[in-house]
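User: Sequence recovery, please. Input:
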């Protein structure tokens, strides 16, 4: 990749934006008011704004390997708190994708060094759902199903947090689980019933 091309692309993008709206960057500099927090995978094939048809200012984005929401990850927790408490987003989306390298790595028994503690969180998802997953003979279908179940469990991790619980009660924040199919380009809504999950875990995870 010729990095000079990146700066040429940037100049062309600026011109295109100003040709359409001479105040585009002036307005962009006034602040942000996104309605959506998108927690996705760092995979280079998954571009959050583009796959949703959105642009700058429309969505607050956090990305990491395999779209994880881990309580001791201060990066992820800071993003969630800032988006929910300060930006007042109305929707939080966890979006996984088929063909996820992180999920596939977690299905292997190999020692992957520094990745081990991160991938262990995905292996925990497998452990929780091992009866269902072990009944799937086709490895690709098992892989796809683990991608879906990982999204579901990360949504559960979201609703364990104080910021999300309070926003659900006070202003109707909604939590969603999606999967992006890299083979077709389609976004798939897993229709996560976050209210039911919240009710199911409240005995242990309720935070005032």
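Assistant: Recovered sequence (208 residues):
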């Amino acid at each position: 990749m010729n990095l000079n091309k990146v700066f040429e692309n940037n100049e062309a993008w600026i011109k295109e934006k100003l040709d359409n709206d001479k105040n585009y960057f002036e307005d962009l500099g006034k602040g942000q008011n996104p309605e959506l927090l998108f927690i996705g995978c760092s995979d280079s094939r998954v571009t959050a704004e583009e796959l949703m048809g959105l642009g700058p200012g429309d969505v607050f984005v956090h990305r990491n390997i395999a779209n994880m929401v881990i309580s001791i990850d201060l990066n992820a927790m800071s993003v969630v708190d800032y988006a929910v408490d300060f930006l007042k987003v109305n929707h939080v989306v966890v979006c996984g994708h088929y063909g996820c390298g992180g999920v596939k790595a977690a299905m292997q028994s190999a020692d992957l060094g520094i990745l081990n503690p991160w991938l262990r969180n995905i292996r925990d998802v497998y452990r929780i759902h091992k009866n269902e997953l072990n009944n799937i003979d086709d490895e690709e279908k098992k892989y796809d199903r683990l991608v879906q179940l990982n999204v579901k469990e990360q949504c559960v991790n979201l609703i364990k947090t104080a910021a999300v619980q309070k926003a659900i009660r006070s202003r109707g924040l909604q939590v969603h689980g999606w999967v992006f199919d890299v083979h077709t380009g389609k976004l798939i809504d897993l229709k996560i019933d976050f209210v039911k999950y919240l009710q199911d875990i409240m005995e242990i995870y309720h935070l005032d």
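Residues 139-159 form the longest helix (21 residues).
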